[in-house]
Design goal:
Blueprint: E1 5-11, E2 15-21, E3 28-31, H1 36-46, E4 50-54, H2 60-63, H3 66-73, E5 76-80, E6 92-94, E7 99-102, E8 105-111, E9 120-124, E10 127-131, E11 134-135, E12 138-139, H4 147-158, E13 165-168, H5 173-183, H6 188-202, E14 210-211, H7 212-218, H8 220-223, H9 227-238
Parallel strand pairs: 3-4, 4-5, 5-6, 10-13
Antiparallel strand pairs: 1-2, 2-3, 7-8, 8-9, 9-10, 11-12, 13-14
Helix pairs in contact: 1-3, 4-9, 5-6
């Protein structure tokens, strides 16, 4: 079985929409298609036909292209059942313990609340699409969930094998690195990653995917050892210039 081919589609100011293609079967999924036109163009350029739409949560920059992609391809729309009223044309409602497939590749559906109450992640062997739960060196804002929920979600993702690739939905790494260096100014690993990320962004390079190993080492939200510490950091980040 060949590995999934993953392609990033930049959209809006800082989103990444992800195409995942199984060359053995020809099956192609799009994860969080906020911009339907961009998604269809990227798939067409590669000769791929999208048959699966995977939504991690309801926010429009993740679901706004559902209808366009559905109408163009007939793809089946999957997403969190807990957010069904807010996801355009959701067809298959997912919850903790369900699975989805892209060709021969199967993903476990994980409930990872915090950013939204119904947020889910798609966890394949060796990689995971984590939406707005975990970012490189950061995490999503708590728009709906609690610190307890988000702390638990981050710790769960961080317990995956260290070489697992994490595909987050936004290019926030430089801002997150700046914050991490601010709250942990004497941390050598964070300082080194901050410098590397700054160079990548100056060259116009993307900083994703990240890995579980990198996040364990340099993500202050992942490294928080208690809910109280996580909540303190999230509050500081919310007000960080």
């Amino acid at each position: 079985m060949t590995a999934l081919e993953i392609v990033a589609i930049p959209a809006f100011a800082d989103n990444y929409l992800w195409l995942a293609h199984d060359s053995d079967s020809g099956s192609t999924a799009v994860v969080d298609p906020g911009d339907g036109a961009a998604v269809l163009s990227a798939a067409e350029a590669r000769g791929w036909t999208i048959d699966t739409i995977l939504n991690t949560h309801w926010h429009p920059d993740h679901t706004g292209g559902n209808l366009m992609v559905k109408e163009a391809t007939g793809a089946t729309i999957y997403g969190p059942g807990a957010e069904r009223a807010r996801i355009p044309r959701l067809e298959v409602e997912l919850a903790e313990g369900d699975t989805v497939r892209i060709g021969a590749h199967e993903a476990a559906v994980w409930a990872v609340p915090g950013h939204t109450l119904g947020h889910i992640a798609f966890v394949f062997e060796g990689l995971a699409f984590v939406g707005d739960t975990m970012f490189a060196m950061g995490c999503g804002r708590l728009f709906e969930g609690t610190p307890e929920q988000m702390h638990g979600s981050l710790q769960r993702i961080a317990a995956l094998p260290e070489h697992t690739l994490l595909y987050a939905a936004h290019e926030y790494t430089l801002a997150n690195a700046r914050f991490a260096a601010h709250v942990l100014p004497d941390d050598a690993a964070i300082a080194e990653r901050f410098a590397r990320v700054a160079g990548q962004r100056e060259r116009g390079e993307m900083t994703l995917p990240t890995t579980v190993e990198r996040e364990r080492a340099t993500n202050p939200f992942v490294r928080a050892t208690s809910v109280a510490e996580f909540a303190r950091l999230r509050g500081l980040k919310d007000n960080f210039a």
